[in-house]
Amino acid sequence: MHGIEIAAPFFAALGTGIAAASAAIRRGEARPGAFRVEAWIAFTALGLGAVLPGRPLPGLLAVGAALAAVAAGVAPRGHVELARAALAAAGAAGLAAGAWTASRAAGSPALRVLDAVCAAGLLGAAGSAMVLGHWYLVDKAMSLAPLRRLTALFAASVAARGASLGALVAARPEARGSFAGGAEAFLAGPGLALAMAAAFGLLLPAVLAAGVWGTLRVPNTQSATGILYAAVVSTVIGDLAARGAGV
């Protein structure tokens, strides 16, 4: 697939995941500003997903973006529960758009919907945790519970995406053939892109998730945030590679 064809679904998945994951941060666990920043990132990503060519259900994504903007507006005023509800609704809207699009793609509809959910979860957990990590520089007394929760969600999402991606590859004869047909078939088919998706989207994030969890046991939130930076870059590369392979 061409870059312009995967841009809209990628940003839609990113915004969906950020909105849903940030809603898992509970009231009193983080400053209101943390919810605002998470919400603005979700708004931007969902908005890009709604306006770029090839966008899936742009109207539903626009609703998600509007809900994220509401969350960004009310969180600094102390309405954290309302912000969380708006973020959860934004994530649900983005998830519905992604699932609808995936169900109409070639191949197994059920597997594609499952993979779309897992992809959004992985991107969102890594991104939301990385953003939250910065707030410990502002408030060193902030509870580690939400960052640990998002890190656990990140690790679980890596495993879930690995299972869904593996199932999709197993269901595609051309994908299996690119690994069994030698170097020429590997380079001509989706094999190289899938190998990148596995390396950057699964293996490296798994190692980084373990590194974040171990660093939080020290605890050292600054180092954990640095590792999460690498995790975000890695998951983005892996996700784009998977989409480029047509998975």
Distance between the termini: 10 Å
Number of separate structural domains: 1
Write down the CATH class.
Mainly Alpha
What is CATH's topology name? Formate dehydrogenase/DMSO reductase fold
From the spread of the alpha carbons, the general shape counts as globular
Q: Nearest-angstrom radius of gyration?
A: 18 Å
Residue ranges: pLDDT <50 for 5 or more in a row? Answer: none
- The overall pLDDT, averaged over residues, is 89
Q: How would you describe the overall organization of this protein?
A:
This protein has helices at 3-22, 32-51, 58-74, 80-103, 109-133, 135-138, 145-170, 173-180, 182-188, 191-216, 221-244. It has a single domain, classed as Formate dehydrogenase/DMSO reductase fold (Up-down Bundle), CATH 1.20.1630. The protein is built from eleven helices and no strands. It starts with a helix and ends with a helix. The mean pLDDT is 89. It has 247 residues and is mainly alpha-helical.
Short description:
By secondary structure, the protein is mainly α.
